[in-house]
Amino acid sequence: xxxxxxxxxxxxxxxxxxxxxxxxxxxxASVLAEIGKAHRRLTNDPVTRAIIVTGSGSRAFSAGxxxxxxxxxxxxxxxxxLRAGGSVMSQIxxxxxxxxxxxxxxxxxxxxxxALSLSFNISSVNAxxxxxxxxxxxxxGYGGTQRLALAVGTPQALHLMLSxxxxxxxxxxxxxxTVAPPVAPDALMDAALRIAEAVADGGPHANAAILRSVRATxxxxxxxxxxxxxxxxxxxxxxxxxxxxAAFRSRRTPQFPxxxxxxxxxxx
Length: 268
What we know:
By secondary structure, the chain is α/β, with parallel strands linked by helices. The protein has one domain (6-200): 2-enoyl-CoA Hydratase, Chain A, domain 1, CATH 3.90.226.10. 49% of the residues lie in helices and 13% in strands. The protein is built from twelve helices and nine strands. The strands form two sheets. Strands 1-2-3-5-7 form a five-stranded mixed sheet, with helices on both faces. A four-stranded mixed sheet has the order 4-6-8-9.
């Protein structure tokens, strides 16, 4: 039986739709695992020439990780979960079939990290993008620190992560995070399908070779990804992370105590 949290439509143009609109399509371990399974199945289907990834409803592509799932995790558990999800992101980044994000609302945290793993993205005018984890005492854990820097350059990536600025659709397009001017929400899927049809008209071996050749020097670095996931797991289980998650779930401002970064090891 298919997981109702993920809807997959097959064909020449396949559509993968995250289907948790009641929680802004938050990514939990089950959804990420199902995305990985769907990707493997679709890329092994000789009919599939392009894959569109989007979210159910108009409010969110995905607003990020499911904080209810990670709230009580210890570092070892968090690292295992992050590595599993990160493996799916890397699998998508290395896809032999072009993958197009149709960003239909919030793409925050893990949702933005998923978008960064895709071949390229388009968006509706109501889309917004960001990696706001530091406001909760956390850091991106699915490759965001690496792929955002590759996409927009190190200074822009650091500014976006440290300031937690949320990019609107026009700013995301200006930075090259999307490849076409944003469209009306009800026109997004038609626009994505038009682009996907054009992509699918190319030779599948040629398309795969283009993806492989570009990634030869532009993929996320394995060392950087490993450093990120270890730091992200430590942050989830830290007192700072616990306070940030609790504050978010209680809809209050987190209270982070002063600390000596050299003494606690997180800043060395």
